[in-house]
Write a structure and sequence with these properties.
By secondary structure, the chain is mainly α. It has helices at residues 11-27, 30-36, 41-45, 48-68, 83-92, 99-116, 122-134, 150-158, 187-196; strands at residues 169-175, 178-183. Strands 1-2 form a two-stranded antiparallel sheet.
């Protein structure tokens, strides 16, 4: 893996790329999270060996999942962790959010949703917040988002590719490396999770 070109990226774009790496740690390879423990964005940027290892592990996760579910029938959905809400806010922001930034907020949203649904303990939510914040990724929505945006975001999530009809389906992380599905949560819980990521 050639990481030299990464030096041309801004801090913001480097961090946005790390969001997808962190996602792979949560869904499949907790070692990624252990490697990032105690790190910050500067220490990752300056450590080429660490960066190469992180990218290699993330690529391996994606390749393994795609190879096991080439037709995207079930397992491959885990690669969309954080993307259901992430895609909705990315579009709503008119792409002022980088994809990775939207996924970062999306992971926080679904972690909060899973906690509100009784599927995960609060410490898993805290882990999400800590690691994403350490990498200078957003863990709440930009200031332009308010409660008034909620109906449009809900409509957008209902048209997500994982949805079945208007039934929203989420990939949730019950523990690092362990995933589950959350299907058709109550709208009140969906909105409560949204309120937890408002600025």
């Amino acid at each position: 893996i050639d990481t030299k070109w990464l030096q041309s990226l801004s801090r913001r774009d480097f961090a946005a790329g790390l969001a997808e790496v962190i996602k792979c740690g949560f869904i499949r390879d907790p070692e990624i999270l252990f490697l990032l423990e105690g790190q910050n964005l500067d220490s990752v940027i300056s450590n080429e060996s660490l960066t190469r290892n992180l990218i290699s592990r993330a690529v391996t996760v994606k390749a393994d999942v795609v190879n096991q579910d080439f037709k995207e029938s079930d397992l491959r959905e885990i690669l969309n962790y954080g993307h259901t809400f992430g895609h909705a806010i990315e579009s709503s922001s008119r792409y002022s959010l980088r994809h990775g930034e939207a996924v970062s907020i999306g992971m926080i949203y679904v972690a909060e949703l899973a906690a509100l649904s009784g599927l995960i303990p609060d410490d898993v939510v805290s882990m999400h917040r800590a690691i994403l914040l350490a990498m200078e990724l957003p863990i709440s929505l930009p200031n332009e988002f308010t409660v008034e945006n909620w109906p449009a975001l809900l409509t957008s999530m209902r048209s997500d590719k994982k949805a079945r009809g208007v039934v929203i389906r989420f990939v949730v992380v019950s523990a690092p490396g362990s995933v589950a599905r959350l299907e058709d949560p109550e709208e009140s819980i969906l909105k409560s999770a949204y309120e937890k990521v408002l600025p």
